[in-house]
Amino acid sequence: MHHLLPEVEKICSMIVQKKLVYSKYDEVGVVLFGTEETENELTMEVGGYEHVVVLQNIKVVDGDLVETLKKIPRGTLPGDFLDAIVVGMDMLIKKYSSTNKGKKRLCLITNGLSPIKDPYEGSKEDQVNAIAQQMTSHGMKLESVVVRESVVLDENVSVMEENDRILNLFPKRTCAKMVFVESSTSLLGALKTRSISPVTIFRGDLEISPKLKIKVWVYKKTSEEKFPTLKKYSDKAPSTDKFASHEVKVDFEYKSVEDANKVVPPEQRIKGYQYGPQVVPISADEWDAVKFKPEKSVKVLGFTDSSNIMRHHYMKDVNIFIADPGDQNAILAVSALARAMKEMHKVAILRCVWRQGQGNVVVGALTPNVSDNDHVPDSFYFNVLPFAEDVREFQFPSFSNLPASLLPDEEQQEAADNFVKMLDLAPSDKEEMLQPDFTPNPVLERFYNYLELKSKHPDAAVPPLDKTLKRITEPDPELLAKKKSAIDSLLRHFEVKQNPKLKKSMKRMREKPSGSDEEDNYRRITSKNKVDLIENGVKVEKIGDLTPVQDFELMMSRRDNPEWINRAITEMKNKIHDLIEDSIEGDNYPKALDLLVALRKGCILEQEPKQFNDFLHQLCKFCLEHDLRSFCDFLASKGITLISKTEAVDSDVTEEEARNYLVKREAKPE
Amino acid sequence: MELDPDDVFRDDEDDPENEALRQRASSKELVVYLVDASPKMFSTNCPSEDQKDESHFRIAISCILESLKTQIINRSYDEVAVCFFNTREKKNLQDLNSVFVFNVADREFLDRPTAKFIKELSRLEEFFVKEIGSQHGIVSGSRENSLYNALWVAQALLRKGSAKTADKRILIFTDEDDPFGNIKGGAKADMTRTTLQRVKDAQDLGISIELLPLSQLDREFNVSLFYADLIGLQGEDLAQFVPAAGERMEDMKYQLRKRMFKKRIVRKLTFSVANGVSIEVHTYAFIRPTVLGSITWLDSVTNQPIKIERSFICADTGALMQEPPKHFQTYKNQNVKFSVEELSEIKRVSTGQLRLLGFKPLSCLKDYHNLRPSTFIFPSDEEVIGSTRIFIALHRSMIRLNRFAVAFYGTSSHSQLVALVAQEEIIDSGGQVEPPGMHMICLPYSDDIRHAEELHSGTNAAIPRANEDQIKKAAALIKRIDLKDFSVYQFANPGLQRHYAILQALALEEDDLPEIKDETVPDEEGLARPGVVKAIEEFKLSVYGDKYDESDNAGHKKVSEASKKRKALADGAVQKSAQYNWDALADSGKLKDLTVVELKFYLSAHDLPVSGKKEDLVKRILTHMGK
């Protein structure tokens, strides 16, 4: 399980990071199992529950929790997930007893390969039943993510099967869900990182005829999680103002086109619609009086063969129709229709007006979603279809009419067939790769990671895309390597070349994506064992000449050994020293200043004020001795000060001392 | 701020950098309607739809009118001229006899149609006799040739605009199949020859000439007499021509009001297939929701357009500022700042590229894997030679193997995991229904997918499932209510059509709104057929037993916890409230001596709001009692 923990750290800290943005008052606790130590209340109270550690008691999410989750200690023993579930459940019960029903969630992440102990009495099934009952009565949900990365060795197969059986009991007994993932990428997408309370967009009748109406509730099935809207930042407030909001208000003013000084009050505006070259003004009242006003209703127009609906006709995000959960007959009716439609390959065409007062109707296709879980009712998916006006009649040449020079010959076709067959993302013996349900959004992941990084290092640059996330944006090098022959054969059979007649100016810009390793890809395939080296390359061990500030920051943020901080600071000091010494008429001063600022910030962050202050003393002394006074003046003019007590508690310099340090020296000689 | 609807629904891919491309591809249509105004056009009548007799002239005008009303919405940049020949008066640039170009103020002869133009044209009959007049233009003994003149005028009008960017057409409406019939001898041959020469000249200039013949009741328009030569008809086409032209007239009248879009490339992409091999593909927005058209904000007093000015104000100091370069997100009680560059850097995970990741069976593409309209992809060898060949090979393999491709599509502002679904060409009698190519479908990510169906699965009891009989009855029902030839293209958007109708009525100051038929309502008549009713009743009996009517209210029977609680509270309040003599308390002014809790008994018992201070409660009670 150890090699997976970095991924587990990522998803767990991502959940907390998103909570810090969207639901700041959520509470989270962390339980580890399979640890050397034992540390939980139950073991003290009733004994047992060894090797389960409560890493963090349930508390409101904060930055420390993110830190904690980013370095989960590695355990040494096989863990008993059932014990861990009980400990977690016990924490929830002690903290909330039976309040907050439905808001309590246990997330279990395991590879399910370690055996669980036999209970003191009864069977494992009884134990699961008892736990499940407790969960139900306290309104808890259980989500289990079982990671199955590689082929399981023989001796473990029986354990694995036993564990899967045990875990599978939960969804049958209580509100629980279980998913299997096989790759680190799908592990990152296996848990919802943001919880959104579902809202129905329609509750009412699904009208098949005026005589047959089925009570349904309609929810969103998919809805794009957007990049967060950031507020605009104003730097106008004085830095001393601790309560400044720094927000920017955007104000809109409506002005006459002819007379820029004439402001039109918002209520005096009226909408004008284009009619030929003219604009026809229509007031909102006029409009309301005559506009299309369909009645709220959801009606079936009829059923049709599913082949009449093309997949690319789907227009929007998808809705789901569920029978009114309180109406048993409606559940049956939906179930009967869904199953019949599935058997007959039919879809229903619907006309929907979700709300009274809605100015248009929606026509869409209802497709069956037959559930294989006894606890989940059958339902329908609903996709909006285009109207006649929405389809543009573009004509394209038939492939068969194209000249033979543009068409593939038989051999080429065979190579393509083989390529399509081999580059298979859903092989029968393995998990489907890049399944949307388990694929995280790389852009959002990157944003929240950067947000976390920036909260600690405000000047940090955007880091390259995480290795696991690259499996979403770029082809899997392992797959490419495995199917090399199919790819090579495709490349052998087809030739592409740039059109030489094309002028350079016609070419569009080919930007290189940030964090791309396109070139790397090929190398990786040819010598796979080099991969690790390349990946590890990001770990900076030395401050270079090209990007000293970034190198320094990366070194400072390395967590694998506390020595890195000292080493970074020492290296940085040397760099600054060298720069000043080699400076001719102060040409290196700005660069040295940059480094000094970075060093100062790093020292504040890492609570090493003395290191910086001593260095600044030393540096000034050195400058005075070597006739480099101008550097001290330069620093003073740029407002560099010692680190004061207010900035870092360990400092023994007061704020005033800090501010006056360089100024004082400067003032004297005149 | 009200958003411009065009902007809201703008394709993500629509970006200004492609503006140049768009310009190049777009073209407009220039049309001259040549309407024969000879007395014959007025005298011959033929029955119209509402059984009243209509003159050919009127039919031609109403056809043009309908077509213009459609055009002003569909392709308002196209330009038209309406020109009569065989007229008494003359009005044209060349000052030729018997040709009258109809126009209104503020408009060139050949120009975009305006509301005023359409309106005046619809009132044509009121002033036609007085101002234009009808007169045979070709009479024996005179050298005048009104048809020749008309073609010359039309050709001159169409001199505007280059042949490359504009599609130029002349449409002739006439019921005279032998214009030079009454001319004898050499003059006839001469006139025929010069007229055909004029036509040929026009065609050489890239103008296409079309004929819309109007047949008389007793005698069909004989194309072979003269016009076959004019429009170059031969053999089989000749026989087909008249009926086909009739259909075209109908089409012109009943065209759907629909904004037309010229086929244009949204983006040119590099599609990287495998190790270093990339091909070139173009994307097209094939299906996009149509919106109401651009909105211009006007000052309601002057009806003059207004512009929106945006200003940024610092919330702390109130100072006016430039658009700030930084954005921030509050996180862990601090403001984490991002520069615009940093934000775009985050979003740029892959740029201007479509990168193939692999293939999956079509069954992996679920119905809920959708977020927005798809984008069409077609290969091009313009920049990268060999692209089409690879594309077609993959396309064929994917169709044969029932697979779709998974790819990562990234632009500088948006990136997305996509499915590429190969679509075979579908052709029916009307032409290409589905072009060959691939459709790019945006796939959701795990956080975009919700699990509402699992929400209500908290209980231990298994969810009921339909049994065999119920499924069989449902199947029978489905068979009964079958839409055989359903096509997604068959419904017009009633909201949009209504909008266009309102717009037209207001612009043309028409008194009544044209009736818009809502094609999306179910076929009530069909549903009332005995067979359908029987199937419905059997399904109902099988699923609901004989309790359908009761269960109609089942939703209300099982009220939610919250409303149950509310109900209990109200019931309690009624009981408690009954213990007080409210009238006496109110009269003696002792209401204020009661506690708020006591006052609320009265309020809840009478379904009044219980919010506010004590005084408000007392006042509310008194008002309710009418005191």
Automatic annotation (TrEMBL), chain A:
Keywords: ATP-binding, DNA damage, DNA recombination, DNA repair, DNA-binding, Helicase, Hydrolase, Nucleotide-binding, Nucleus. It is an enzyme of class 3 (hydrolase). GO terms for biological process: DNA recombination; double-strand break repair via nonhomologous end joining; telomere maintenance. SMART domains: Ku78 (SM00559). It comes from Rhodamnia argentea. This is ATP-dependent DNA helicase 2 subunit KU80. Belongs to the ku80 family. It is found in: Nucleus. GO terms for molecular function: ATP binding; damaged DNA binding; DNA helicase activity; double-stranded DNA binding; hydrolase activity; telomeric DNA binding. Residues 501-510 have a biased composition (Basic residues). Its EC number is 3.6.4.12. Residues 501-521 are annotated as: Disordered. The lineage of its organism: Eukaryota, Viridiplantae, Streptophyta, Embryophyta, Tracheophyta. One of its GO terms (cellular component) is Ku70:Ku80 complex. Residues 261-402 form the Ku domain.
UniProtKB/TrEMBL annotation, chain B:
Keywords: ATP-binding, DNA damage, DNA recombination, DNA repair, DNA-binding, Helicase, Hydrolase, Nucleotide-binding, Nucleus. SMART domains: Ku78 (SM00559), SAP (SM00513). One of its GO terms (cellular component) is Ku70:Ku80 complex. One of its GO terms (biological process) is DNA recombination. Residues 591-625 form the SAP domain. It is found in: Nucleus. The keyword DNA damage applies. The keyword Ribonucleoprotein does not apply. Residues 1-18 have a biased composition (Acidic residues). Residues 1-22 are annotated as: Disordered. It comes from the Eukaryota. Belongs to the ku70 family. NCBIfam families: ku70. This is ATP-dependent DNA helicase 2 subunit KU70 isoform X2. The lineage of its organism: Eukaryota, Viridiplantae, Streptophyta, Embryophyta, Tracheophyta.
